[in-house]
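User: Predict the full complex structure for these chains.
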Amino acid sequence: MNQRVILRSLPILIVLFLMPLIAPRFYVYTLASIFVMGLLTMSLNLALGYGGLYQLHHAVFYGIGAYTIALIFSKTHLPVWIGFVAGPVAAAILSLLMGLICIRLSRLYFGMLQISLGSLVWAIAVKWYTFTGGDNGIHGIPVPGILSSINGAYYFILIVAAFCVLAMYLIVKSPFGATLQAVRDNPARSEAIGVNVAKHQLAGLVLAGFFSGIAGDLFVVLEGSVYPDLMFWTLSLEIMIMCLLGGMYTFMGPVLGAAIILVLRISVGSLTEYWTFVMGIVLMLLIFFLPQGVLGYIEERWKTRGTGLMKKGLSNVTG
Amino acid sequence: MLQVENVTMSFDGFMAVDGANLTVEKGEIVAVIGPNGAGKTTLFNLISGQLRPDSGKVRFKGEEITGLPAYEICRKGISRSFQIVNIFPRLTVFENVEVSVLSQQKRSLSLVPSIRKRTIGDTKKILSSVGLADKSDRISGLLSHGDQKLLEFAVALASRPELLILDEPTAGMSPEETQVAMELIRQLSLNLGLTILFCEHDMDLVFSISQRIMVMRHGKSIIQGDPEVVRNNQEVQEAYLGGSE
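Assistant: Here is the predicted structure of the two-chain assembly.
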């Protein structure tokens, strides 16, 4: 089963590998941004879709990952790999600390407390001029030479993101992943079958934070800069919309959602500055016609081909 | 095996359980009966850790378990099914039971996907014991109510309990499904030597399978004894016939 999935995604990976050879620079850059955003939304979905946790301020962990690597690259002479490891580790530690505080509250209250604590972190990044560069952020981060060209960055981002996707796939398919989904569906029953719910949720949060930290690393590789908007709550909202758009109960849905929104922003954004207006309409259509998300819809149609009986029922469960 | 001593539980001043006593010996089938609102479900929730009693003691195999979190009580060997269907609706039938097996084997935090192969055998065995083997791949939220109740059993059984608590196991079942469920309970007690504590409204059923019966009324336990003793007890008849208030 696992091998079949890897085999099936191989052609896509090959096409993506060939892109820099055939596509103009702008498209390569756009693809790389989609990978970074896609990895970020997938990491969010680990908590949101698989853990059922209202991770309303996920961007904070992304921002912490990005700031950590940016500060290490620009202010220290530590080896490069330490920067790359420190980003996700810092994000995971922050996830653990915030998780320990928020996990006591359930559902929406969890999310609201997370927004407050996250905004605190954002405020520090904005106000602490001498250390974080304040609202200017940090620019011209010295990224290792091989990664400073757009193609170098593209390949690095593609490879790292692909490994992260594989790792997250294995996590989702592991006993822990199965149990996390059970906790999402029914925390009380999970307790009753001997599952320590808080521990599993916390582990899910830490993993989600870790992968978002890697996305932060990749952002710095691609852009060479960081700024406080990376951990502003609007970004958290945006990536949550990407999850919903793609399908939060599917594995690859969030990436699809990220791709759709980024492409929409670039293509519509070049025509009118009111591109959010178009996005609003797209979202409204989505809520009415595809409540399970784009990929959720496709998977549902595909799975239930021929068995029309299940089609209605499945959207009842997911909707 | 299980001793419940004088437990009380109030919700906003309402005494849902007001001094209940209950003992269950190893291998027994014990029924708790009583009118609606007598506190049966609350009592079960106090035993299995969904609620913490205000006062009183719950002992299991000689060890005090009062107020422990539900997952620890489950690990000590008490598992339960719920009155309202309480499963994992988005998971398949197989996964529902598998998650419980994984938890029982203390593997629920493992990140190695191939570990799940080792639970296939146990999961299949439990599914076929309740007659759901042919529905393994169905999404559990889409099953019929009767099948969901059976799955409810299966999830509880997968914890390999010594004491199985069933809260109205046949509620909402058709007469045929009820027969199947009752036969299942009898088999579990006979073949696995499982100790079973349950509550139920269908009196024929209660008197046909239980060895001892405890009667509750207004949160208090009135009597616990053999079916014959309970049947002839004055207070029980009053409780059920509505007698003097």
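Residues 21 and 151 of chain A are 9 Å apart (CA to CA).
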